[in-house]
Specification:
341 residues, mainly alpha, two-stranded antiparallel ribbon, two-stranded antiparallel sheet, globular
Length: 341
């Protein structure tokens, strides 16, 4: 049986493409939600199994965090599915079609907006925190490194609140202004994640180079591998963000696919970070110490930012504090060398 073009809705090709992007985004969100559910239970199981009287204060915040985001993602997905059903089935003949129906402010749509904003705020907070953890011990003061990301994070929260008020309320200010808060809100949040992804990857690449110089390329790979960098930097979400911003800037209706699925993809990126932390593979302030002491002949080491030079034929490493611990290890070139970290 051949398809008849007369069955196509009487709408422009641009409108049909926008509706296609929305529907495909809902499908992608559903798939991402399923992955997020699996990751949530894996994280919860690992964290709960490790919890005891000595570490519950450290692990309990993670449990509360992932449970909160799981609840928000579930509410988001349920509301999105119901709103999509209303637009494409129950009110299909709304003037302008589903694409126009999407602009209505109804409870189901408001739930997705609120849950999406709260999820984005929580996820952005996690990547900012991970950036702080990974840059601990850096020679540059922490406040210099984190000043710009924290300002962007605060600005994105402010824009998120303004956008949420604009799309969920009928206040006179928002009805009379020509300002559309959607673009600054999304741009700030997405740019924040992209910037943090870049600076985290740069930091891990620096650690990878230093560890390889001191101990060889086989050490510390669980912390500095490509997969570790992708997870730790939330590169998955940043990739989706770049794709969305590119298509949105080109005024391509398919950008709707990435926009609708951004919330669930961001949750996956966040849960992957928590999962690595729960497995003990996430970078922490003690990671460098653990990597350096993993060498069988190492005696004592200390974490810190290190550089090295050659003095009297031996390698000398000095931390950012100017102090360090000494270890002796065998090499093919010399019987021993002194390592200061």
């Amino acid at each position: 049986m051949s398809l008849n073009s007369s069955w196509t809705p009487d709408e422009s090709s641009e409108t049909l493409l926008a509706e296609t992007g929305w529907l495909q985004g809902t499908v992608v969100s559903a798939v991402a939600y399923g992955i997020g559910v699996a990751l949530f239970f894996m994280c919860f199981h690992l964290l709960f199994r490790q919890m005891n009287r000595t570490n519950y204060k450290k692990l309990l915040p993670f449990l509360i965090y992932i449970t909160t985001t799981f609840i928000l993602s579930t509410l988001f997905m349920a509301a999105l599915a119901d709103f999509t059903q209303l637009a494409f089935i129950q009110y299909r003949n709304y003037p302008g079609g589903p694409s126009a129906f999407e602009n209505l402010s109804i409870p189901m749509d408001n739930i997705t907006d609120v849950c999406g904003v709260l999820t984005m705020i929580l996820s952005d907070a996690l990547v900012v925190w991970r950036c702080m953890v990974i840059y601990r011990g850096c020679m540059v003061p922490m406040w210099i490194i984190m000043l710009f990301p924290c300002l962007m994070y605060a600005a994105s929260i402010a824009m998120a609140i303004m956008w949420l008020l604009q799309v969920t309320t009928s206040a006179s200010y928002f009805s009379s202004t020509d300002i559309n808060y959607t673009i600054p809100y999304l741009t700030l949040s997405l740019a924040l994640n992209i910037i943090i992804t870049i600076i985290i990857v740069l930091r891990l690449l620096t650690y990878r180079r230093r560890i390889s110089k001191v101990l060889g390329s086989s050490y510390g790979t669980q912390y500095t591998s490509i997969a570790a960098m992708i997870v730790e930097s939330a590169a998955l979400y940043s990739t989706f963000s770049v794709a969305f911003l590119t298509l949105f800037g080109l005024n391509n209706a398919i950008s709707e696919t990435f926009l609708v699925s951004l919330t669930q993809v961001q949750i996956i990126a966040m849960l992957l970070i928590v999962f690595r932390v729960a497995q003990g593979k996430g970078w922490s302030q003690d990671t460098m110490t653990e990597v350096m002491t993993s060498r069988p002949s190492a005696q004592t080491t200390r974490m810190g930012d290190f550089g090295y030079n050659l003095q009297d034929g031996s390698k000398t490493f000095t931390g950012s504090t100017g102090t360090g611990a000494r270890t002796t290890y065998k090499s093919k070139e010399r019987d021993s060398a002194e390592l200061f970290v």
